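Lab channel / #folding
Pinned by the channel admin:
"Please post every new chain as: sequence first, then the structure tokens as a reply. Keep commentary short and put observations after the output so the thread stays searchable."

First post following the new format, from NK:
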Amino acid sequence: MPTGRFCAGWKGETVLKWKAKIEILLKQQVLDPQGGAVEKALKTMGYPSVTGVRVGKYIELVLSAEGRGQAAARVEEMSEKLLSNPVIEDYRYELVEVGE
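Reply from TO:
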């Protein structure tokens, strides 16, 4: 049973709103020149202990789905088809149920 945070679906079914918080980073074995530039700049600014800088993307979106499983499947599909490049990037996400 839904937690009460829902919007009515087109045919009367309960459709929940989900916020997906998606983080995308280059795979560990892929060179990250932007991360290297940021690391060098930080060291120049007086932060010599900084190492291993990786630069990535953060995406938030809201989607409708009947349950967490369906929402997760859609986020994974979107991430693999458009939001990330699965050849060189890894992604991870968090799903949070939200109100209308």
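NK: Residues 1-10 have pLDDT under 50 and may be disordered.
TO: also worth noting, The CA atoms of residues 8 and 14 lie 5 Å apart.
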